[in-house]
Amino acid sequence: MGNMPGSGNTALSGDLYAALLWQLLFLVALTALVSIVLARRRPTATRAGPVPEPAGRRILRVSLGVLWIMDGLLQAQPGMPGSLVQQTISPALESAPDWLYSLVDPFTRVFLQHPVAADAVTVWIQVGLGIAILVGGAGWLARLALVASVGWAAFVWIIGEALGGLTDPAASWLTGAPGAALLYVVGAALLLLPWSSWETGQAPRLARGAVGLTLLAGAVLQALPRGGYWSPTGLFNVFSDVAMGGVPAPAAAPVQWLATVIPAHAGLANAVLVVTLAVLGSGLILDAYRRQVSVVAAVVCLLGWWFGQGFGVFGGAATDPNTGLVLILLLLAGWPRSVPGEAASDEPGSVSIEEPIVPARRLPVAAGVLAVACVLVLPVVAGVGLLGSQTAQAAVGDSGGAVETAPSPAPDFTLTDQGGRSVSMRDQRGKLTVVVFLDPECFDSCPLVANQLATAVRSLGDQATSVSILAVDVNPVFNTVQDVRTFTDEHGLTDLAGWHFVTGTTRQVGEVLAAFGEGVTVPRVGMIGHPQTVYLFGRTGEELSVLNDTANDNLTRSYVQLIAAELRRHL
After folding, report:
1. What confidence tier does 163 reach under pLDDT thresholds 50, 70, 90?
2. Structural domain of residue 173, as residue ranges?
3. Do 226 and 283 sit in the same domain of this protein?
4. Residue 292 gets which letter from DSSP?
5. pLDDT band for position 362 (50/70/90)?
6. What is the mean pLDDT of residues 256-264?
7. Which of 127-131, 173-177, 214-218, 358-362 has the lowest mean pLDDT?
């Protein structure tokens, strides 16, 4: 369900575009070479011209091809390598059952550990599928592309959309349930039907029925109390999110107006929506008043795409145009056209229309080679990177990387370290100094961050003596020298000469936090909430850069590489 607000982390955009450019050059060279070879060997015997493709099938085929290419281009947005998991996949998994989380988790780990390579693979598969379907044809390659489209769309629906968000209590037809990728599966499956089913009207009826089933399911989702759409905030949240989600101002204004009006009439508005979806869905499934119902359903889907999904592609993190547009295209493909002999075929004993003989119309050589290269060859080439170990790219994608800051003097403070020695920022002049805020009682993120920093410094060899780490104890209860000494001993940091886990009174530490513009939260139960920002200061005390370490244990090696590279850059 394609639109998430925020453009996300764009730190890897340069790496992504460099990889895509080299892969594109490889693709062009391979396509040209193979096309020349195949063109020389291709038989020149004349063949009968192909049977014209039915209008509805052509609309659906072109639509699906364009949608896949559009999805590939959306996947190449600057923020995708660093934002897809955090902004799209992870939120969809928050309410997912354990079995679905276990199924998706290995793929999210691969994407997190190799964000550029994984994103490039996704781009080329979707562009390749789009090209193959768009070029069309009735040969084996065209059918193979449709089968591949079914498989890839199903994969995206499960892994990328977490079953289209259907496990979310707030799942709604307005926001995109049951997911655009599932409708891609339906579209490709319809294209795999015999051409005669489009001539007889059977396939168009199935297309309309698929839309009807989606609308009926939407009515059920909208009516369920768990969604909260009968309350004043339910529909308001949907419309206000769209209005503030990057939609151009002229299109956002009506949505914002509706968001302000809805709370006073929430129950009535949701009832109208439920009834409308149920009536239209039933009409499409029963095939009653087909033309009139199709037109009204298309208008309702357009309004849902606008007001509930913000046209799907705005916000910078969209992976597809969402379901509203796909439903409209299915209705266009399923538009009820007059079929010769349709009335007679409904009578007992009538003769059914025979399936036309469709010559095997091949894809043009270059287009066929291009499609195969995109779907099969380039993903393998790009996917080689998925087999390697983590690089600093993974940490950059996860956190945004180390960000250079305007030179400013380091806040001065004096605290006591694990050895009982007085340590100040002034004492660190002549060295690179890392400042980080930790809790000695923390047992998850703090040990990870501390060990990542220590490992990065140790990897510098002889230069390690030129780096100091000042970890500030932010726990207002466990703030004695013994507390920071215990943490240092338990996590094997005693041999690191530049390690100083410093502590002081609550007032002293509060002043340090304020000087850095940071703060902590102390819950009644649970661990202290504190910043995980890593600050780097130069030899003369000026601030050089900051890094937001997310303490992701799956990316420890990558964070070590990133931190070490940043230290080497300034040594």
Report:
1. very high
2. 53-336+367-387
3. yes
4. H
5. low
6. 94
7. 358-362
Say if residues 434 and 468 touch (Cβ distance below 8 Å).
yes
Rounded Cα distance between 565 and 541, Å, is 20
The answer to whether the CB of 87 falls within 8 A of the CB of 397 is no
Amino acid at 561: Q
| Three-state SS at 547 | strand
Are residue 409 and residue 553 in the same domain, yes or no?
yes
Residues in the chain: 571
In a shared domain, residues 105 and 141: yes
Extract the tokens encoding 513.
């936090």
The three-point CA angle 15-17-18 to 5° equals 65
Amino acid, res. 82: G
Q: Are both 57 and 114 inside the same structural domain?
A: yes
Taking the model in full, what pTM does it have?
A: 0.86
Exposure on the CB side of residue 375, measured as CA atoms within 13 A: 24
**Helix 55-75, helix 115-135: angle, nearest 10:** 160
Q: 35 CB contacts (<8 Å, ≥6 apart)?
A: 365, 366, 369
The pLDDT tens digits of the residues spanning 242-258 come to: 999 889 999 999 999 99
Residues 415 and 375 in one domain: no
Angle, vertex CA 560, rays to CA 490 and CA 509, nearest 5: 55
SS3 174: coil
Q: How close are the terminal C-alpha atoms of the chain, in Å?
A: 46
How far, CA to CA in Å, does 256 sit from each of 174, 318, 373, 430?
15, 21, 45, 56
* pLDDT, tens digit, 9 for 90 and up, residues 477-504: 999 999 999 999 999 999 999 999 999 9
- Number of domains composing the chain: 2
Buried b (16+ CB within 10 A) or exposed e, 350-369: eeebeeeebeeebbebbbbb
Strands 403-404 and 432-438, by their bridges, are unpaired
- Domain assignment present for 490: yes
Q: Which residues of 265-275 are buried (b: 16+ CB within 10 A; e: fewer)?
A: ebeebbeebbe
